[in-house]
Design brief:
- By secondary structure, the protein is mainly beta.
- Helices cover 6% and strands 57% of the residues.
- The protein is globular and about 65 Å long.
């Protein structure tokens, strides 16, 4: 639920900034530098549960999403003022009580019947001074310690404040506090949390420094009050090997521990993961490794995604003591005279899971995507993605699924 005093504070902040914006003579920059778009997203998801004793034989839902975005410019002056807005609407096209649970649509707490529609409106006030921007309100962070989820009909959001500074060349710093989350299939804002436990706030700070155009180092520290503290270090490097040939290295390390009251129980996890990708013309070959150690699973915010290389379509491979590896292949058909058409397939295998009574649990996932983006004409930018997933587990882990998704998308620039 939204805490009343936070809601009043947020509304007062937005109204104050709007008043400041309207009182300045440079409102033209506020509107003239603005942009707006409407994204249409149509998703069908069919998931068959293959394990014995599954609570339902399948989950199958179809929905239409509308995502409207408005980004203003900034007023002139030493401190610029602006306002962004995000409107989301999800509409049920097909679902039922016995086929719910795909993550596309929320359902009633008592009736368990999927709702006909759900929506969210988010406002973000922003202040700019020099090369630093402060945002207050609805946020969609893409940081190693806080990543919003955008894998269903509507993206998730967080509420809080984010300060981004780029005062020094090559250095981007971020610091902030998140207090609430809106899930991808929800209309409500809830207290931020993890593993079914809520917290008053989540604080984070860190940044990325580009040592060279091909080498970047990243470090962050964060704390979800009374639940967990997490530190991150990462490196991304691209090595040119010749015309149309390059090797990209992406290495990531997390150290996570419980803190304060430890409301979610013991958190004790070290996570080293990395991916190496060789691009050769239209083809890309990738290999990844993910190693978890400690007494608990890898923690990440409810409503978000973990920043790990083996986060794939269905699974995250972040269970306690899990080792996992991935092989992936991508192909761009533009080299064959079909621009806009692309293909991806990958296989991920994990083992060594120790969770509850499970010892040496194992799981694997195979994904295949075929996508096409219209390149010209009145439907330029319209895209379709066909996605197939197979997931199996064993040695104490008991979930097996086959899944297909059809995703249609189109973004209309309003101005």
């Amino acid at each position: 639920m939204i805490r009343p005093h936070l809601q009043r504070t947020r509304e007062a902040t937005v109204l104050t900034l709007l008043a400041l914006a309207c009182s300045t003579p440079a409102v033209a920059d506020l509107a003239g530098d603005s942009k707006a778009s409407l994204e249409l997203r149509n998703v069908y998801l069919n998931r068959d549960f293959r394990q014995e004793g599954a609570p339902q034989s399948k989950a199958a839902e179809w929905g239409q999403g509308f995502i409207a975005r408005f980004e203003s410019g900034f007023t002139e002056g030493s401190i610029g003022v602006g306002l962004d807005a995000l409107g989301e609407l999800g509409v049920k096209l097909d679902s039922s009580r016995d086929r719910r649970g795909t993550g596309l649509l929320p359902f009633g707490p008592s009736s368990k019947e999927p709702v006909d529609d759900y929506s969210e409106l988010g406002l973000t006030a922003k202040l700019r001074a020099s090369k630093s921007v402060l945002r207050l309100g609805t946020l969609q962070p893409t940081l190693p310690v806080a990543m919003y989820n955008d894998t269903r009909l509507l993206p998730s959001t967080f509420t809080g404040g984010l300060l981004t500074s780029q005062e020094l060349d090559g250095l981007t710093l971020n610091a902030g506090r998140l207090t609430e989350t809106n899930l991808r299939d929800s209309s409500s804002r809830d207290d931020i949390g993890y593993a079914g436990q809520t917290s008053d706030h989540f604080d984070f700070a860190g940044g990325t420094y580009a040592l060279t155009p091909s080498l970047a180092l990243t470090a962050y520290t964060s704390e979800l009050e009374d639940i967990y503290r997490q530190h991150f270090a990462g490196l991304v490097h691209t090595l040119p090997l010749g015309e149309g040939l390059s090797l990209r290295s992406d290495l990531r390390y997390f150290d996570s521990r419980d803190t304060g009251a430890g409301k979610a129980g013991r958190v004790d996890n070290r996570n080293f993961n990395g991916m190496f990708s060789l691009t050769a013309g239209a083809q890309r070959f990738s290999a990844a490794w993910q190693r978890l150690s400690g007494d608990s699973a890898f923690p990440f915010l409810t409503g978000g995604d973990p920043f790990v290389v083996n986060l794939v379509t269905y699974n995250t491979f972040t269970k306690p003591e899990e080792d996992s590896w991935q092989l992936r292949y991508d192909y761009d058909f533009a080299s064959l005279g079909i621009p806009g058409l692309s293909f991806m397939t990958r296989y991920v295998s994990g083992d060594g899971v120790e969770q509850g009574a499970v010892r040496d649990g194992r799981e694997w996932e195979r994904d295949t995507d075929l996508a096409y983006v219209v390149q010209s004409g009145s439907l330029r930018g319209f895209n379709i993605r066909l996605r197939n997933v197979t997931f199996r587990s064993g040695d104490g882990l008991t979930q097996d699924i086959d899944e297909n998704r059809i995703i249609l998308g189109y973004t209309l620039a309003l101005w």
